[in-house]
Design a protein that fits this description.
single chain; 282 residues; alpha+beta; Fumarylacetoacetate hydrolase, domain 2; 2 domains; twelve-stranded mixed beta sheet; 7 helices; 19 strands; globular
């Protein structure tokens, strides 16, 4: 299934995307307005959600929102693709010896087609195409071989980064967490629809020009290693978002920073795309 949040006439609801239409799931018993709750209860709800056929609407007639607006955690890994690690080394940033994690504060979460603000305080606004993983089961101390069982699904993310603010702090958090800098979506594609999350083509286009392209199989630490590592430290909850790393050719490596009027699009095979216009912060 492709589970989404959408707004129509001022009302935001849960739906599932089927082709170019979206089925309103708000009438399914047990479905509230919370995607976190739907993911928590997904094993019990799945049959009813899959069977639901209406009412349905054209996707073009609704506004798709961030599939999950209120995760408890938004975690991201740095330098997790070999070519990107090399370009960081060339820029004087040492390669991490272990998995390198940071928070994106959840207040940065933004819709899949909503504007992304270029902050007043920086002209170093960068893009990072990433595969997002959404946790479906509350879990701790997950073994690598069991990690797939705790995944609800996948989505497309752009880890928008304000580079000068990122480099002011060794935790990266401030430069990763400006408001609007966490566009995700366009929906959550449930795990059962993806044969191998490590065999997907991911691309980023800026103003129609390809800037990034990779296979998710090029990760240094794969998704299951990441979940095992994180769950050693903390309890992962349904709805938590994990961004799994970006490939080479980020803007800071090529001198290509985003500015107002730009449009950035990230697409991942089998998951759809997000596309965000860049606007000046007011």
């Amino acid at each position: 299934m492709k589970l989404a949040r959408f707004t129509l006439s001022g009302s935001t609801r849960i739906g599932k995307v089927v082709g170019e239409r979206i089925v309103d799931l708000s009438g399914v018993p047990g479905v509230t307005g919370s995607m976190r709750q739907v993911l928590t209860d997904l094993p019990a709800l799945r049959s009813a959600l899959e069977a639901a056929t209406g009412p349905d609407l054209a996707l073009a007639d609704v506004t798709l929102e961030a599939p999950i607006a209120d995760p408890q955690k938004y975690l991201a890994i740095g330098m997790n693709y070999e070519a990107h690690a090399r370009e960081a080394e060339d820029a004087g940033i040492p390669r991490p010896k272990n998995q390198l994690w940071f928070n994106k504060q959840v207040s940065c979460i933004n819709g899949p087609f909503a504007p992304v603000e270029k902050p007043k305080v920086s002209d170093k606004l960068d893009y990072e195409a990433e595969l997002g993983v959404v946790i479906g089961t509350r879990c701790r101390h997950v073994a690598v071989q069991d990690a797939r069982s705790v995944i609800a699904g996948y989505l497309v993310t752009n880890d928008v980064t304000v580079r000068d603010w990122q480099l002011r702090s060794p935790t990266y958090t401030l430069g990763k967490s400006f408001d609007t800098h966490g566009p995700i979506g366009p929906w959550i594609t449930t795990d059962d629809e993806i044969a191998d999350p490590h065999a997907l083509t991911m691309t980023l286009l800026l103003n129609g020009h390809e800037r990034q392209r990779t296979s998710t199989g090029d990760m240094i630490y794969n998704i299951y290693d990441q979940i095992a590592y994180l769950s050693t430290v903390m309890t992962l909850e349904p709805g938590d978002v994990i961004a799994t790393g970006t490939p080479a050719n980020v803007g800071i490596a090529t001198g290509t920073f985003m500015k107002a009027g730009d449009v950035v699009r990230v697409e991942i095979e089998g998951l759809g795309h997000i596309e965000n216009p860049i606007v000046d912060e007011v």
